[in-house]
Design a protein that fits this description.
about 0% strand, mainly alpha, about 190 residues
């Protein structure tokens, strides 16, 4: 009997602890916003390089950039082959164009890598946040399961008590009937 009471008290204390933890968590979230504590999901202020890398990668990875870039290449080649007859600044092998494209690729590659690293960092923070939320939900589900078990136990106790009352009432009514029958048999 004492083991059951100890288990119930432990379950109830777990429930009250979970309630107080959720209240404390609400208080802490407001404190975290004001104190800038590092959590897996807090927003960090981007440096200029990070901001520029994200913006340039977003621009360079779009169809608009591709269309404009191919238009620029076509105009460059057309001007150097057809229109500028006297003073061509980049004749047929287009060495200056190749140099420009190589420089652009050399600058684009690290910018894209920086942006991908930032994306990976955001994904890791998102995963950490999801893990934290899942753990919290798991604790809340455990508390709910404990409460359901307590309710089930309470309901079964109440139903047993009501059934035993009914049986006791039926036994009393049967005893009363037997006594009445016994009295009638004695009289005859």
């Amino acid at each position: 009997m004492s083991k059951k009471n100890n288990a119930k008290n432990a379950e109830k204390s777990n429930f009250t602890n979970a309630e107080s933890n959720s209240a404390n968590a609400k208080k802490n979230t407001t404190a975290k916003k004001t104190k800038n504590h590092k959590t897996p999901w807090t927003r960090h202020r981007l440096t200029f390089g990070q901001w520029a890398a994200d913006k340039l990668t977003g621009t360079m990875g779009s169809w608009g950039f591709i269309i404009i870039f191919f238009t620029f290449l076509g105009v460059w080649i057309y001007l150097n082959i057809e229109l500028v007859i006297v003073n061509k600044w980049d004749p047929y092998p287009f060495i200056l164009l190749n140099l420009t494209l190589s420089c652009l690729a050399a600058i684009q590659a690290p910018i894209i890598l920086m942006s991908q690293n930032r994306s990976g960092e955001r994904d890791r923070r998102r995963i950490a946040k999801d893990y934290y939320i899942d753990k919290k939900a798991e604790k809340e589900i455990m508390v709910l399961q404990i409460q359901l078990l307590e309710l089930r136990e309470l309901i079964s106790k109440q139903s047993l008590e009501s059934q035993t009352k009914k049986i006791a009432d039926e036994i009393k009514s049967i005893q009363n009937e037997l006594e009445n029958v016994g009295k009638t048999l004695q009289i005859e």
